[in-house]
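Following up on my earlier thread - several people asked me to post the actual chain instead of describing it. Fair enough. Here it is, all 346 residues.
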Amino acid sequence: MPDSAILSTAVGELDTPYLELIDALRIAPRASWAELSAVLATPASTLRRRYRRLIENNVMRMGVEFYSAASASELSFVTIEADPAQREDVLDALCRIPEIVFVEDLLTVADAACHTVTPTLRDLHVRTTPQLRAIPGIRRIHVLPVTTLHVTGAAWSDRVINPSQRHRLERLGTDNEARRPQHPPSALERAGIGILARDARVPISDFARRLDLSATTARRLLRGILSRDDVRIRLQTSPAYLGYPIVATFYCHCAGERTPDLAVFAREHLHARMAASVVGTVSFLFACYLTHIGQTEQIQRRLRQSFPDVTIGDVALSMRRRKDHGWIFDAHDRIVDHDDGFGMVW
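Reply from S.P.:
Thanks for posting it. Predicted structure:
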């Protein structure tokens, strides 16, 4: 596929050079084009052009997220059943609630799956859940509070680049910087975070101009923001563009002492993008990107072989993402808007 081929309206897997660039940027999101060029053995001008095409065609975005640490917030998984005649209105309304950071359509189990992040479970109960119940067309709400997040989607990698390249990129990554303890951000930091939320690779000259700062002061502010313990850079793109048109979430019952081993197995052997212990009708769930529906059987078979004592319940299938940490997706999986609420990450 030539560089210009990503202009197709239909969702299709990106060519390998684009996948390599996306994988590299997940690891080293603020690395310079020269640094990325040295690792990927591709001219910096070519990488810059590919990046620009991904952005211009709404295939990918990179933004910082200002969030509360896991110890200061509560993550819950929520499934929604809706009246068929009002399904679209329900999904649109879900995307407008700031505490709901993730929304996807479901083909099985329910109509929609959401992730909520609230300061406490009480906030979920007294503030967020009433907002859900007030949406016309919602028939049923099922909540699974998370006790432990074992595998996070922000850390998922497509494993396109080789181990040597990955090691070199990890040395360039912002997560290697010393992290500062949390403190309330200043007004200037909040303004900077607001700019970086939409473009984590904004040139320092633009960053300085928009904040009316000198380049030296802007650079110091940028370093300070990225070293905060409550700020992370997250790359967003539809899994369909990566070659994974289906997302499957497996709901399981397992004894508590088996959970750590199950989480490791899900991450290392099933390439899970998310795994968590929850409280409710199930005790553990994990999600995987799939290239075809038959992989659900393969995953269940491998899980039963390695963990015969684990019971697999429902499998929720999704082929469309509506919202992911502030970014809004259209029906073609293109990123078309941002909700301007600093998305949370876990």
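Residues 44-56 form the longest helix (13 residues). That should answer part of your original question.
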